[in-house]
Amino acid sequence: MSQTVEQMPAETNRVSNEFDYRPVPPLAAVTAVLGVISLLALITEFALPFALFGIVLGILAKRQISRSDGAFSGNWLVRGGLVLCALCLCGGSAFHAYVYATEVPEGYKRVSFVTDISKKGFSEIDGRKDFHPEVKPLDGQKLFLKGYMYPDGRAEGLRQFILCKDSGECCFGGKPALTDMIFINIPDGVPPATFYDGLVAVAGNFALAPDLRRAGELKPAYKIDASLVEAARKLY
Fold it and tell me: What angle do CA 186, 187, 191 make, to 5 degrees?
């Protein structure tokens, strides 16, 4: 009998410990996962929404735990996820803003190949095709823009190539319009380019080139004498 009585506290403690377990709400686990995913925001700006979403879910998870009267645990998990999301959101935003602000060489003007040039197309004046009045003022200016190299079989040592407004037209059998292409010329003294199948940044002197031809192949409407050709640091 004495042994049974002595064993009762141990049995009671074991049962009590079994019922001390408190579940972690799904929102807490999701917050932690989003915190880890948010680390990608330090590499690509497209991961920034994950950090923002993680902060919102973390606040909801923390509120859920605090209102559960001890039924839920996981505060440590939520705190860790929130800290990661907040750091990645702030740090990633600052980093990408800095890169965007510093990627344009001094003295050059940033323009969008698509919206500022390609979409303008040509104008019809007295039945004659002419350059768009909003594109004409760009003639002779130092511009910085982005596009895609039109593949012609060469990979290195490029002194000339065609820049297209998007990858669909240059890489998947599309037939670019004249205003969707820019003839890129790399003068002596500037390092030659290497073919790159991603987004390319080009800086140089922009010129209207209505009669520019490449042995009857592609006929771009514009030309740039490039001082810089490199893989784009940002996708916008």
Answer: 65
